Amino acid sequence: MNPNAPAPAASARLAEIHQLYHLQSHLIDGGRAAEWAATFTADGSFTSPSYPAPVTGTAALTAFAERFAADCAADGVVRRHVVSNVALTGDDGAGTVRVEAYLQIVATPDGGTPHTERFTTLTDRVVHDGSGWRIVARVVRRDGAPADPQA
Asked: Where does the pLDDT of residue 12 fall: very low under 50, low under 70, confident under 90, or very high at 90 and above?
């Protein structure tokens, strides 16, 4: 027996959260903006140094994902979100968990060679809303970027 192995309930929760992250990647990469936005709570937020300002709420998240798809088409690039090393790093005991993961954005120009466009760390607050896990708040940090003094 491994004393560090998560309990069965924790393992099931982690598997469900992995599914959320995998689904999110496929939705945004496939241009399914409204479905991607629905993986966040209605007041969910997305903060990333790659973009000028945080995005909050379903309508704004949908518009954000639509712009992502439009930018990819305009650039002639297929971008893929590759999430790995997903770890539950906190639990408030009231239904909200903290999740940390790595996210690579792999870009493939039309007729070109894939390359890693950026490597980031995700820190999310995730809640189960009765029908599934949803992101309450996502903060993205880029490798190589200066540390945020407020983080």
From this structure: confident
